[in-house]
Amino acid sequence: MTQTETAVTTVGIGGAAESTDMVLNIGPQHPSTHGVLRLRLVLDGERIARAEPVVGYMHRGAEKLFEARDYRQIIVLANRHDWLSAFSNELGVVMAVERMLGMEVPERAVWLRTLLAELNRVLNHLMFLGSYPLELGGITPVFHSFREREELQNVMEEVSGGRMHYMFNRVGGLKEDLPAGWRERARRAVAAVRGRMGTFDELVLGNEIFRGRTRGVGVLAPELVHAYGVSGPLARASGVDFDLRRDEPYLAYGQLRGTLRVVTREQGDCLARFEVLLEQVHNSLELADACLDRLAELPPGPVNQRLPKVLKAPEGATYAWTENPLGLNGYYLVSRGEKTPYRLKLRSASYNNIQALGELLPGTLVADMVAILGSFFFVVGDIDK
Questions:
Q1: 326 with 85: CB under 8 angstroms?
Q2: What are the distances in angstroms from CA 333 to CA 69, 80, 89, 170, 180?
Q3: Which of 34, 126, 178, 350 qualifies as a cystine partner to 382, CB 3.0-4.6 A?
Q4: Do the beta carbons of residue 20 and residue 37 sit within 8 Å?
Q5: What distances in angstroms separate CA 107 from CA 96, 113, 347, 362, one per listed residue?
Q6: Per-residue pLDDT reduced to its tens digit, 208-253
Q7: Where are the domains of the chain?
Q8: 105: DSSP letter
Q9: Per-residue pLDDT tens for 85-127?
Q10: Structure pTM?
Q11: Is 50 exposed, middle or buried (0-12, 13-18, 19+ CB in 10 A)?
């Protein structure tokens, strides 16, 4: 038997490897990416040299679908892009249409909307307050956050009929009035959640490992906040003192100035972002109590306006924006006088927020990437729309 000669090539990777960049794809299915997001990283050893967020894997074409739905139907699409902030998403759409129509919403509906928006804000923040420590290795806080979420989910489900996609807003107000005894049950739920929020101070903020992984990590400069249109808790954790509820009040926020606190930090790191989120939960619970107090004083009355069978917005354009849990959420509505929008452009908070990662991640360690990514508190559907 004749043995065939085989050519063997040996590749040396000694000193040459030191000047070779490594390209690493995080996602689009990696568990650290909060959904179908892809990060394309160029590494220099253990440090990130370049970072590119690659979006679009979940794109569902919501803006185009808006053009084929009437003003009642688009609410169902609008509440789904940030599935943790469904009620707040609905608000922007109905406010835009009401502004086009020059429609006044009953006072009872205004206060109810404000209350439910703040409860929705707490639900959103609790998800991140539990899941962020989980990504850093702490499993216990997520169980506490889900227990508190269930308290509030129960009252939200009772009033609207939905657990995540409430579909409770209508052009001109709300779907229907409160069930009998709901205000008292909501007040008990708010009190129960407030009474247990100290758990996060003890379990998370009091944990030296958590503080070690987040203090001084992923510092977002105010200049980057302004350059990329970053908003919400991310911006306020970097010292950018801006909140639409105070600076351009809508709903009943103008009457809640004594209760509303705009929470800020100067450090701009992962720890500051978590602290802002936690403190905002406390303030949202206070706002919810203030709304419940005001609702108890209001006489019985309508919570919506009577609408024609076919609702048409007059020709023109308007922009309605709200302070959603994750940041600024805006709808630019263009109407040609038909029953469907000619154009409805969505400005989502997560899309702008995530763009700053391209500037923030370079120079940081790969080991800190998950901590930074998790502290950006985004929802992928809110990026891809």
A1: yes
A2: 13, 18, 14, 16, 37
A3: 350
A4: no
A5: 18, 10, 28, 50
A6: 999 999 999 999 999 999 999 999 999 999 999 999 999 999 999 9
A7: 22-54, 62-383
A8: P
A9: 999 999 999 999 999 999 999 999 999 999 999 999 999 999 9
A10: 0.90
A11: middle
